[in-house]
Design a protein that fits this description.
The protein is α/β, with parallel strands linked by helices and about 375 residues long. The protein has twelve helices and twelve strands. The strands form three sheets. It has a seven-stranded mixed beta sheet, sandwiched between helices. The protein is globular and about 70 Å long.
């Protein structure tokens, strides 16, 4: 039996190393820039849905006011999801009489939720390009220009951009979150550069308005609390698989805050995992299932080794191959993010990661998804 388990572990390790190797090649691949045919920057509508984000809005609005993008070529749409704090008052005060900044408030009988808030903003948006972001983010002055520059290529339909967890001055827990999140960014960028985009982050992504209008009625997962980013990616991928790009540009990096507590962290990750049952993209399902299987098996072998030391061989094979396979991609992303100082946490993270993934999946299956004091039925 131990021989069979070792063989299974070895085969899974081989499949995993090929998958992560595929992403790694994509991350370091020199992407060929298409000829830019348009000299004008496109008109951009930035959509920011929010609910009870009062502590974050002032800084975000200052960031947006400081954008180095041609005047009159962008608009900022803040779309309220029935906030019950003073978020709308802050926005009203901060934007004043600015013509390019707008606050969209729902009527009492309209739908609740982030997706509904985005939909209300889309109806008001006048841009050629839709940029999605979140209210708890921090961005540099060249953020919007770096996105607009890419869309001067008329062939580009969707742009995936980098997100970073800002762990500065917040301790080891935040450092672990930042390093773990970089692995997701590596998979996002690597898979997109290889022509098989796997992931997206709704805090930093853009799409052509005409493409959005084409697919909006076909989007999956409309009843889920989250997942608008992944379902949008999969819908575009069906129509324009070769016209999706990852923006590997430091000026496009958007920073978001880490979770403050373990409970908040696990609930967030469980929410992300819960939407996976609605995916239909074959490559996404395969990659997600393989990563989950590897991590769950590591946990089971670890627990089983207390009963039978023969499981230790299979455990050592899986863990060591995962350790060696993951590092080049993570190191590449850390260098891009200027965060190589966090790599000292890599080995400890490798011990923790399988247990975190397994716990997250269990929470996603056996608990109700929550977001902003709302529960997924």
């Amino acid at each position: 039996m131990s021989t069979t388990i070792t063989l299974i572990a070895s085969l899974l390790a081989l499949a995993y190393s090929l998958l992560i190797g595929f992403f790694t090649v994509g991350w370091f691949k020199k992407t060929r820039r298409e000829s830019i045919l348009q000299t004008e920057y496109p008109f951009i509508s930035v959509i920011i849905p929010f609910r009870n984000e009062a502590p974050n809005l002032s800084l975000l609005i200052q960031n947006l006011k400081s954008q180095n993008y041609p005047a009159g070529k962008f608009e900022i749409l803040f779309s309220d999801d029935f906030s019950n704090d003073n978020s709308t008052e802050i926005i009203t005060k901060e934007i004043g009489e600015l013509l390019d900044f707008h606050l969209i408030q729902p009527h009492y009988n309209e739908k609740t939720g982030k997706k509904a808030a985005i939909e209300r903003a889309l109806k008001k948006a006048g841009g050629d390009i839709i940029v999605n972001s979140d209210a708890d983010c921090n961005l540099g002055p060249e953020w919007l220009k770096s996105i607009g520059y890419e869309f001067r290529d008329p062939k580009l339909q969707m742009l995936l951009a980098p997100v970073d967890i800002d762990e500065s001055g917040k301790g080891i827990f935040s450092g672990f979150q930042s390093l773990e999140f970089m692995s997701l960014i590596g998979s996002t960028g690597g898979s997109a550069n290889m022509g098989y985009p796997l992931m997206a982050n709704g805090a930093n992504m853009a799409i052509r308005m005409e493409t959005m209008l084409e697919i909006r009625e076909k989007l999956e997962g409309k009843k889920l609390l989250s997942g608008d980013d992944m379902f949008l990616l999969q819908a575009v991928k069906k129509l324009y698989p070769e016209k999706i790009k990852f923006l590997k540009n430091r000026k496009a990096i958007l920073k978001t805050k880490p979770a403050n507590t373990l409970k908040e962290f696990f609930l967030q990750r469980a929410r992300w995992s819960s939407k996976s049952t609605a995916y239909h993209d074959v490559f996404t399902i395969f990659a997600g299932s393989l990563v989950a299987t590897i991590n769950i098996l590591i946990v089971l072998l670890f627990l089983g080794s207390f009963l039978n030391t023969l499981f230790l061989k299979a455990l050592a094979i899986l863990w060591f191959i995962k350790l060696v396979t993951d590092f080049p991609l993570l190191a590449g992303v850390a260098r891009f993010m200027s965060k190589t100082k966090l790599l000292w946490l890599y080995v400890p993270l490798q011990f923790i990661y399988p247990f975190y993934v397994t716990t997250t999946l269990l929470l996603a299956v056996f608990t109700k998804t929550t977001w902003k004091d709302r529960v997924q039925n």
